[in-house]
Design brief:
alpha/beta; Rossmann fold; Helicase, Ruva Protein, domain 3; 2 domains; five-stranded parallel sheet; two-stranded antiparallel sheet; 14 helices; 16% strand; globular
């Protein structure tokens, strides 16, 4: 592998970031790990959880670990695409008037799109296009977004009135879908004790943008055995009801399975998991672990599945049981 850093140095960076985030968000170790899977594999994340669970605080803390710029947008039905990407303003300088492009909040390293399903499809598409292309076009000029560029979009699972659910093709642009559970009693007690009176959590800086880019490049170049690639590909194939590998539950309750992007996410996110666990190569267990956040938003239920409220994770579990290593 090319690069200045070695395996131990890269893993140390990952562990430091994980430690800082755990000091900010209590009792959500699994959520933090999955966020790191997406962040260090250059994938955007969709987070689903109740209000007040610390999503904004978590993303702000992640930005602070590498001194990255952070912006938050509260999505509402009256939001316009220009409110996100930016707009041209007529400015007069020394008697000369000219249009100048004023960049919107999307021009940041970390963008928190809060309650993305409350904005209209036109606004959603403006954000998701930038996520895919990592550029913004205004008039005849194309502006590159910062590198790295990472979007965390949130959804409220209980309040769906007046919302615009993301279409399947747009959901697919998110690498992972992370579910934030409600804290247990012990965690609630800790929150009550350690956050009163409230002070802004202190987050130690781990590195800068250059270090982050080095870490990401190192992880990208981690080797993957052909057998592991084959296993990830068979898992995705088994998520399709018409596929030979599909279990009975997929055939009965699923309308469509994961796109080919699911294979890419399994491998990229799996590398970060392997790195955190002090392994220089990807294993079958890594693929199985990241399958849940990587595939749950890529499985489309049919009418029967929707009617019976079949859980996406239960279907993924059946896929993992069906596909032999």
């Amino acid at each position: 592998m090319q690069g200045k850093m070695n395996f131990n140095e890269v893993r140390t960076v990952l562990l430091k970031v994980e430690k800082e985030l755990n000091s900010v968000l209590f009792g959500q170790e699994k959520v933090i790990k999955e966020l790191l899977f997406a962040f260090f594999s250059q994938g955007h994340t969709l987070v689903e959880g109740l209000p007040g669970l610390g999503k904004t605080m978590l993303v702000k803390a992640l930005a602070k670990t590498f001194s990255l710029t952070f912006k938050r947008i509260q999505f509402t039905p009256d939001l316009m695409p220009a409110d996100i990407t930016g707009t041209h303003l007529l400015i007069e300088k020394e008697g000369v008037r000219e249009f100048v492009f004023m960049k919107g909040p999307i021009f940041s390293h970390l963008l928190l799109a809060d309650e993305i399903n409350r904005a209209t499809p036109k606004v959603q598409s403006a954000l998701l296009e930038a996520m895919q292309e990592r550029t913004v076009t205004a008039g005849e000029t194309t502006y590159p977004l910062p590198n790295p560029f990472f979007v965390v979009a949130t959804q409220n699972p209980i309040e769906m009135e007046g919302t615009y659910p993301l279409p399947e093709a747009q959901l697919d642009r998110f690498s992972l879908k992370i579910l934030i559970p409600f804290p247990n009693l012990e965690t609630l007690r800790r929150i009550g004790i350690e956050t009163f009176p409230y002070v802004d959590p202190k987050v130690e800086k781990v590195g800068d943008e250059d270090l982050l880019r080095e870490v990401i490049s190192f992880i990208e170049l981690m080797p993957v055995a052909p057998e592991v690639v084959n296993y990830a590909s068979r898992l995705v194939l088994a998520s399709h009801p018409e596929g030979d590998l599909a279990p009975f539950e997929i055939r009965k309750f699923a309308r469509y399975g994961s796109s080919p992007r699911g294979v890419q996410v399994l491998l990229r996110a799996g590398k970060v998991k392997a790195m955190l666990e002090d392994r220089p190569n990807l294993s079958f267990s890594d693929i199985q672990a990241v399958a849940y956040p990587a595939l749950r938003h890529r499985l489309i239920l049919n009418f029967e599945g929707e009617a019976e409220r079949v859980g996406h994770d239960s279907l993924i579990e059946k896929v993992i049981e069906r596909v032999r290593i």
